[in-house]
Amino acid sequence: MSASAVSEQRGDSKPLVAVTPGEPAGIGPDLAVMLFGKTLPARVVVIADRTLLDARARELGLSVPLVDYSLEAPFSETGLNVLHVPLAVAARAGTLDARNARYVLRTLEVAVDGCQRGTFEAMVTAPVHKGVINDAGIPFTGHTEFLAERTHTPQVVMMLAGGGMRVALATTHVALKDVAGALTQQGIERGLRIVRDELRARFGIERPCIAVAGLNPHAGESGHLGREEIDIIVPVLERLRGEGYDLKGPLPADTLFQPDRLRDYDAVYAMYHDQGLPVLKYASFGSGINITLGLPIIRTSVDHGTALDLAGTGRIDSGSLIAAITLAAELARNRSIVH
After folding, report:
1. pLDDT tens for residues 10-30?
2. CATH (residue range 1-153+295-339)
3. pLDDT at 73
4. What is the reported pTM?
5. Closest CA to 245 of 229, 266, 262, 231
6. Quick check: 24 and 128 in contact, CB under 8 A?
7. Quick one: fold of 156-291?
8. Do the domains 156-291 and 1-153+295-339 match in fold?
9. How far apart are CA 180 and CA 271, in angstroms?
10. Which of 198, 250, 252, 310 ranks highest by number of CB atoms within 10 Å?
11. pLDDT for the residue 298
12. Helix axis angle, 185-201 to 319-338, nearest 10°
């Protein structure tokens, strides 16, 4: 039985959302246990090692009753619901251990598979540490790419929301020297189709207006500073405009993010990671949200890293995780309305 069907049967109105705490040495477990006692728009199940969560709660001086989650049992309203996945070795706050890399990926697999089966209506991820996963001999580029592969999705789009902006990316975790070579007409067209379709279906924007950034300074200056705009981006925009898309650009990125201009756009489509995200994170750090568009499931995430130096200290803010859970719940409700 799906989570939504179980919700209806029990009279629950809140979506069931899986939360993965990510790197066990980072602040993800802290954020997870800090959810207890918060008023949330979702019923949260944390997928993690129960011993890790208990130890981190005690380290933070928190009293957090942990309840083993089961779809067959009533959802606990008096404890933190936990779906146990065991660590390989005990984790210590602030100290990375490559032996736990497969544990991190296993929590993600459980969440993704649960969403695909209908057990969960969405998943929310806390930060992972890409370096230690790769140190364990496991090629790993990031959540976005991992989720695409796990769900057999040929192309997804990374979009961050916050500070009154939505910024989607044509390329994600790609070295700057490789960005131009990674941009193709086919990839940009697919990406813009995903962004437009998701803004309509999940965010309820009937005719979204998308601002498309150029790759080069001054959007190529009519070819004098690069031809990617002329050869790759413009032909795509012209084709999609012919289908009724509302697209602006390609626009110079250095002036695109002026507040007066942003009010006219429902989203910005940037060509690479550090073209679009520094502006958004400056405006919203600590409350921003990462959304993976194009997946058959709903996935949101925090907008920050593992913060190893803050793990176990209590000197953190759970605002981004709560914002990510709130948006995941909203998107899950929107999907229920559409279907």
Report:
1. 446 899 999 999 999 999 999
2. 3.40.718.10
3. 82
4. 0.90
5. 266
6. no
7. Isopropylmalate Dehydrogenase (3.40.718)
8. yes
9. 9
10. 250
11. 97
12. 80
Q: Which of 320, 304, 292 is nearest to 122 (CA)?
A: 292
Q: Which structure tokens are listed for 38?
A: 């918060």
Which structure tokens are listed for 209? 């207006």
Tell me if the bond preceding 296 is cis, omega within 30° of 0.
no
Phi, psi of 127, deg, nearest 5: -70, 145
Domain boundaries, the chain: 1-153+295-339, 156-291
